[in-house]
Amino acid sequence: MEDLLSDPDALPGNPGTLEKAMTQVSEKALKRKPNKNVILGLSTTLVWFVALLLFVILSSFDFLEPYSILPFFYAVPATAIVLLSLRSAWHDFRWNQGLISLIVWGSLLSIYVSLLTFFRLNLWKIFLLGIPGQIAVCLWFRMFRPEKGESDHG
Q1: With 80 as the cut, is the pLDDT of residue 92 above it?
Q2: Domain residue extents for the chain
Q3: How far is CA 21 from each of CA 17, 18, 24, 27, 28, rounded to the nearest angstrom?
Q4: How far apart are the first and last CA of the chain?
Q5: Phi, psi (rounded to 5 degrees) for 7
């Protein structure tokens, strides 16, 4: 032990013990799995933080204040995109249909509110575009489900 204190280049008498300890620490760290729900929560919190930051900035200037609410509308489809991306990367497709529907309707709502805010255009008919969009989403996800009574005979 005195050699270790007096000579900084000296190795411990039993290097196998140190190596074994480092291997155990590394293996334990690799076995730990991150909590995906926390990752999803942090990611969506970041989207809404950016929306809130933009709200604060825009509402601080009188000439921009009427537009300060818009970031919250855009945060809805942005949140759905973040969740869809992460869950798909993790091969968890259970919520994809709902998330894609949220992207469609949230995007239409964002466009509607933007047109209303910037140009005073009340183009409520833009929501009609969501009908074929929603039908396409439903049909797309139905295409990959086996029908009742279908079996593998091929």
Answers
A1: yes
A2: 2-31, 36-143
A3: 6, 5, 5, 10, 11
A4: 72
A5: -115, 110
